[in-house]
Design goal:
Elements lengths: L5 H17 L2 H7 L3 H7 L4 H4 L7 H22 L9 H15 L2 H7 L11 H14 L4 E4 L2 E6 H18 L6 H21 L6 H12 L3
Antiparallel strand pairs: 1-2
Helix pairs in contact: 1-5, 5-6, 5-8, 6-8, 6-10, 8-10, 9-10
Length: 218
């Protein structure tokens, strides 16, 4: 029997906790991202545990489907000999876990004393994985919400960030778009920094540009 990938383990774990929390408000209250609990009671674990729970089944399915579609590819890319090799899987899970924290830092500083604010879901970390996938293969076809996967990643990425920034400024849909934005950017920064620190022969940003040029026959 083949070993489960880290992506599938994350999906299974998140699914189990989320489904359990759907019928147990105490689990939600204990795990949700609630800034005053961090500010006043030092419950820093909430940065991470909020990624294990979701608002409803639709929220869970959207995040986990996105993670599944991009995660396997990104995880395999991390472990490829030209990138991180044997360290790949550890770096992949590190990126995902750290993205949960980093993507919520702006939200924390904005709402640290806001007793009415709460946030949940793995969207920020999933955004890191999605943008890591785009960095590795900018010409891959990606769907935009309900649009079939026909948009090249290098076009989808900027559009996604622009739309998320617009929706974040409007702040009318009860979605933490800030986490999406910072999670996406963190995915790119993490890979670029890790490649530089570990002195990988693979240059992510350089390869990103070269692949786009190649798609135009340049």
């Amino acid at each position: 029997m083949d070993q489960l990938s880290i992506t599938l383990i994350i999906i299974i774990l998140t699914g189990i906790v989320s489904f359990t929390a759907f019928s147990n408000q105490k689990i939600i209250d204990d795990l949700i991202f609630y800034p005053p609990a961090i500010t006043k009671r030092n419950q820093w674990y909430r940065f991470f545990t909020c990624g294990l729970i979701h608002a409803d089944i639709g929220h869970l399915i959207f995040n986990m489907l996105s993670l599944y579609l991009f995660g396997e590819f990104v995880e395999n890319s991390f472990s490829s000999p030209v990138l991180f090799g044997e360290n790949g899987k550890w770096l992949y899970i590190s990126m995902y876990v750290l993205a949960l924290f980093v993507c919520l830092l702006p939200t924390f500083f904005k709402h640290r004393n806001d007793y009415y604010y709460r946030s949940l879901g793995a969207s920020g970390a999933v955004s890191a994985v999605v943008f890591a996938g785009i960095l590795f293969d900018p010409t891959m076809k990606v769907g935009f919400f309900f649009i079939p996967p026909v948009i090249p990643g290098y076009i989808f990425g900027p559009l996604y960030l622009i739309l998320s920034t617009y929706l974040e400024k409007r702040a009318k849909d009860n979605v933490n778009h800030s986490a999406h934005i910072w999670g996406a950017l963190f995915g790119i920064v993490f890979i670029t920094a890790a490649a530089a620190i570990l002195k990988s022969d693979y240059q992510p940003l350089e390869q990103f540009v070269l692949k786009i040029k190649h798609s135009f026959g340049l």
